[in-house]
Amino acid sequence: QVQLVESGGGLVQPGGSLRLSCAASGSVSSINAMGWYRQAPGNERELVARITSSGDTNYADSVKGRFTISRDNAKNTVYLQMNSLKPEDTAVYYCHVRRSVVANVNFAYWGQGTQVTVSS
Known about the structure:
Layout: E1 2-7, E2 10-12, E3 18-26, E4 31-39, E5 46-52, E6 57-59, E7 67-72, E8 77-82, E9 91-102, E10 105-110, E11 114-118
Parallel strand pairs: 2-11
Antiparallel strand pairs: 1-3, 3-8, 4-5, 4-9, 5-6, 7-8, 9-10, 9-11
């Protein structure tokens, strides 16, 4: 079992910044990817950013140049720095962790979600 604890969400004005954190505990070995998804009411859950064990990153086109994903392996924590926030960034943000078990078999874990609201 892997437990994920998210923090850092809140209310911010357009143009502001927030930093999300997600700390993993439990069976944290063999984690091969960590990332963030978000879901707004009426929308599909979408990938925001991901970082692999090798350090490769990818971002949704809508957040490129504004968001930065990073990780601290010693603390089993992934971060999402969000700058120049826009109202359309408003959503519940979910931490996602992928852990390999055997070849071609992975377990996925989700955080509880943290609300990010961008409004004036």
